[in-house]
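Journal club prep, shared notes

We agreed each person brings one worked example of a sequence with its structure written out as tokens. Mine is ArsR family transcriptional regulator. I'm keeping it raw so we can talk through how to read the token line rather than staring at a rendered picture. Sequence first:
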Amino acid sequence: MTRTDQSADDRPRRQALLEALRRSSTPLGVTELAEQLGIHPNTVRFHLDALVTQGLVDRQLEKPTGRGRPRTAYAPHPGMDRGGRRQYHLLAKILLGQLSTSPDAGTAAEAAGRGWGGYLIEQIPPSRDPSAAESTQRLTAMMTELGFAPEPDGDTTNRIRLRHCPFLELAEEYSSTLCPLHLGLMRGALSEIRAPIAATSLEPFAEPDACIVHLSPVRTTDAGTRPQQRHNRNR
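Then the structure, token by token:
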């Protein structure tokens, strides 16, 4: 079986091959690349196969000019290099920092969370409304998927402990913005499935190893009135 994964030793050589292909105005063959870089053709072929598998290089057969097999040539795949570093943490800090300067940052963050909570929760057919137990289960499943490690409090059905925060470092710095966003996620999710319970509050770092979500029955002004479910979401 051919090994195409990239170890630390492979990385410089594959990068050198990729740069040689990018410098060339025409596709190059194995022999040309081997001569340019001073490495064995079999080594070049091995790394080119890996680069093709990774989607960084395109392999093509050129029409022969005479008798013989068509020449296999390689060219860099068009488009931005997708193998570089990502800076999503920095992006999150920039956006949270900007949001935190607004006069009502917590309300804006919660509103954003509500919209995404309604999108992320597993939907329920409009022909029925869920019980409190099913609503809690679906909320817990969503928060598990997001990485919060939720754990229903053993002493009460009105609390959920969040044992992990997937944005911990950001939450420690921007808790006044990020925690309302998390609360909004849960409120939006429960509203979307017409749950008979609501997330009333979130206590950040209420315990040394957990945040606490408080749940309570939904209050309605008219008996039997339930929030309408939104449809046609692009999931």
